[in-house]
Amino acid sequence: MTEVAGCILAGGLARRMGGGDKGLIRLGGRLVLDHVLDRLKPQVSEIILNANGDPARFAEYGLPVVADSIEGFAGPLAGVLAGLEWARDNTSAEWVATAATDTPFFPVDFVTRMLAEIASQGADMACAASDGRHHPVFGLWPVRLAGDLRHALVDEDIRKVDLWTARHKLVAVEFAAEPHDPFFNVNRPEDVEQAERIAAEIAA
């Protein structure tokens, strides 16, 4: 069985939410991060949180908290790199699946579907897509490319995900956007109300 480690990307600045951790917003009586963990845990062998700042705020979860090693909030690629290097140094996983900390409804089969598409397409990596849009923060990344990504970030100052993935064979895996887009994220204060409606629909 292919071993896949999970990495929840929680290293952003959350500017549109007025700062703070989007994963610690309450949704349906629980934190958004709780919803994310519920969906990711069954899909991977172990999970780390990629988060900057004081890791103590996540202490109750008992998970490794790994900060970006690239200074200056370098974006999602820095989080992907943190996950890849941690998996390389601490596990036997061949892949790292990344998920956003503010996206509580993502598919419960996204890892298996991306593994299958990588195998069938002979691709190097995969990202999720829905409604015609790619979601690169929901990706499946090979641990063997950790050094390649570090070189791109440190030596070439690449920050955009698509500039790095364009160098490799990427497959986008499409997920249905009905009855709701599974990659809806709680990005702004007004998104919380919509997320509550979606959560109620799922519960029903």
* CATH fold category name: Spore Coat Polysaccharide Biosynthesis Protein SpsA, Chain A
Please state the second-level CATH architecture. Alpha-Beta Complex
Element-by-element helix/strand order: EEEHEEHEHEEHHEH
What is the CATH C level class, in words? Alpha Beta
CATH superfamily: Spore Coat Polysaccharide Biosynthesis Protein SpsA, Chain A
**DSSP strand tally:** 9
Parts with pLDDT < 50 across at least 5 consecutive residues: 13-19
Instruction: Summarize the amount of helix as a percent range.
Output: 25-40%
- Strand sequence of the main sheet, in spatial order? 5-4-1-6-8-7-9
Largest sheet: 7 strands, mixed
Global morphology: globular
Structural summary, described in words:
The strands form two sheets. A seven-stranded mixed beta sheet has the order 5-4-1-6-8-7-9, sandwiched between helices. A two-stranded antiparallel ribbon has the order 2-3. The protein is globular and about 45 Å long. Residues 13-19 have low confidence and may be disordered. Helix 2 runs antiparallel to helix 4 (146-154). Strand 7 and strand 8 (133-142) form a beta hairpin. It contains six helices and nine strands. It has one domain (4-203): Spore Coat Polysaccharide Biosynthesis Protein SpsA, Chain A, CATH 3.90.550. It is 31% helix and 22% strand. With 204 residues, it is of the alpha/beta class.
